[in-house]
Every structure is written in C-alpha cells, then in structure tokens.
Design brief:
7-stranded mixed sheet, alpha/beta, 213 residues, binds S-adenosylmethionine, 7 helices
Length: 213
C-alpha cells in the first residue's frame, strides 16, 4: 500500500492519544492498561483501519489493538477511528509485527487477525510473510492456550503457504474455506478495505481459523 508521503505524519502519529508509543513497558500488564478483564484481540497490518473502526463498535466487550508499521497508513486508521466514534477499547501500535515478542507476554493475547497480509510472492521474501514460521512462533507464545488466529486473503498462494506453515508450527486449523461468502463463516464477518475491493471485483476470499495447540 503506497500513499503520498505526509511530511508530518510521524509527528501526528506520535501525538495521537490512541497510539501507545512505549508498548514494551506494558508487556505483561495489558489488562491493567485497559483497566478491565476483557479479551485482547490484535489486527496485524491494520492498513487504513476500516475493520477496526467497525469491530471496536460492534464488540465493545473486546480490547482491540491495531498494529501497523507505516506511519502514513496508520494516520488514516487513527482518523477513521476518531471520525467513527470508537471508544477507549481501540488502541494502535506503530510497530513492525516482527517485534511483537517485546510487547506481549506469554498467553496475553486472545486472538490474532491477519487480513489481506502482503503476499510477498518471491521465495526469497517468504520470511516477510506474516504467516512465516518465525512469526507463528511469536503468535504461539503470545496466544492463550485456547486462543486462535484468524486469516482472510484473496491470495491463494499465501493461503496455501499459511496452511502449511500453521500445520508445521503447532497450530490446528479448525475452519477453512476458499470462498468466505459462500460459507457460514461470513455471518459474523466484518469486511476490511481490501476485502471490499476484491469482492467488488468478484474475487473469492479465502478464510481460516487456527487454534493454538
Ligand atoms: C495489503 S494491506 C491490508 C490492509 C488491511 N488489513 C485490509 O485488509 O484492508 C497490508 C498492511 O499490512 C502492513 N504490514 C505489512 N507487514 C507488516 C509488518 N511486518 N508489521 C506491521 N504492519 C505490516 C502494511 O503496511 C499494510 O498497511
């Protein structure tokens, strides 16, 4: 996702009250940070934030955190969250997902959402995929025992790669379909920005849910 560079984006992100700038200090204390015992759900690679701006309002009983590494993109998500009236149950990290271990302690996360992650089609870039085994190792540590990971993508190669990596990485795939909108899983679905783009072009959406074993 390429956006025109906004010169003051970094400064605006740093000042925004929804952004947690030193999340390493909250490691192990996320419940205290939110001030409640609600489950903690992450979306990795939030993009412009459409999913979270809806999810945080439909599910106020969840603490939501969006993780995005590009500040210009995160700025859009922050603006959307404010415009749509999200409450204090939605916060953001300006962070590369490869640093998640520094931010979440073992068993601290209830669910991880991966939505239309960059596919990195070249083999030499495979370790950048958010379902590469190095990322999965982090997710396994952070997730609660009965926690799970949920993934949506238009990209069949990334989907198949993810299924293989999950099987090798200590996850059990409990649900999967290569056409989300022709399945029962779409009933609670909240579409993302990319998802709306792909479905409007008639492309099927792959979906899976995998439980930490
Ligand atoms: C293709 S976009 C999808 C955006 C959104 N999830 C959607 O479905 O509309 C992928 C997003 O993931 C972000 N991203 C990719 N790798 C990341 C990483 N390692 N850590 C954090 N964000 C990442 C990109 O910057 C981009 O905004």
């Amino acid at each position: 996702m390429r956006l025109r560079r906004k010169p003051q984006a970094q400064q605006m992100v740093r000042k925004h009250p929804r952004v947690i700038l030193d999340p390493e200090r909250v490691r192990g204390y996320w419940k205290a940070f939110f001030g409640n015992n609600h489950p903690l759900f992450l979306e990795l690679g939030t993009g412009k934030g459409q999913f979270l701006s809806r999810a945080c309002q439909q599910h106020t009983e969840i603490n939501w955190i969006g993780v995005e590494r590009i500040e210009e993109v995160l700025l859009h998500a922050l603006q959307k969250a404010d415009e749509t009236g999200c409450g204090g149950n939605l916060r953001f990290l300006w962070l590369d997902a490869k640093k998640l271990d520094e931010v979440f302690a073992e068993g601290e996360v209830d669910r991880i959402h991966l939505h239309f992650s960059d596919p990195w089609p070249k083999k030499r870039h495979a370790k950048r995929r958010l379902t590469d085994r190095r990322f999965l190792e982090q997710y396994r540590r952070m997730l609660k025992k009965d926690g799970f990971l949920q993934l949506k993508t238009d990209n069949e190669d990334l989907f198949n790669f993810s299924l293989e990596e999950l099987a090798k990485g200590g996850f059990q795939v409990t649900d999967s379909t290569s056409d989300l909108y022709d399945s029962s899983f779409d009933q609670e679905n909240i579409p993302t920005e990319y998802e709306e783009k792909f479905t409007s072009q008639g492309m099927p959406i792959h979906f899976l849910r995998a439980r930490h074993m």
